[in-house]
Write a structure and sequence with these properties.
The chain is an alpha/beta fold. About 50% of the residues lie in helices and about 15% in strands. Bound molecules: erythose-4-phosphate. Erythose-4-phosphate (E4P) binds next to α7.
Length: about 220
Amino acid sequence: MKFFLDTANLDEIRQAAALGLADGVTTNPTLISKEGNVDFKEHIAEICKIVSGPVSAETTSDDRDVMLKQGREYVKIAPNVVIKVPLTTAGLEATRILNEEGTKVNVTLCFSAAQALCAAKAGASFISPFLGRLDDIGDNGLRLLEEIIEIYDQYEFQTEVLAASLRHPIHVIEAARMGADIATMPFKVIDQLFNHPLTDKGQAQFLADWAKSGRK
Ligand code: E4P
């Protein structure tokens, strides 16, 4: 399973990269806006210097032609840029065209298996089902993920399943058990994945016993 950072914060991306846990990055307009008054293209370029895997740059229009214009512009930022478009009529049309031009597209804001099937047929390289946002409204994000993986496996679609809107380690572990290709998560969830109080307690005890024994 690949781990993507769901952030546009350079420090967090550097920290995850140092841990060997940043196979890619997914940004969105909200995450970019949290970074203040940065220049979008320059910021994506900075991220691409830290991470060699796919870095999603999201289009910011409901209009297909504007999506195409932005996508064609953003893809020139770095060879690992992936264009992110919403799962709308215009987004699917843009996906088909960009895919035919050889550009990788991450189709985002996916909330149903039917949407995921359409995205794969349109030529999406990645599909991003939003697990946490479904859970937030009392639905079941993991069940959606399971449905998408099952459907894609039946037809051997090449679209990678990118579990998104992950809120906690259980989302990540269950997604891994199902065989999701990628999990994208905030740095906080990465931290929660490997930090364990019993590891810290055990290590503190080992160091204390070593010191007590008088060894250097
Ligand atoms: C994915 O690409 C999105 O940026 C992200 O996972 C959305 O997560 P949120 O629901 O926590 O905003």
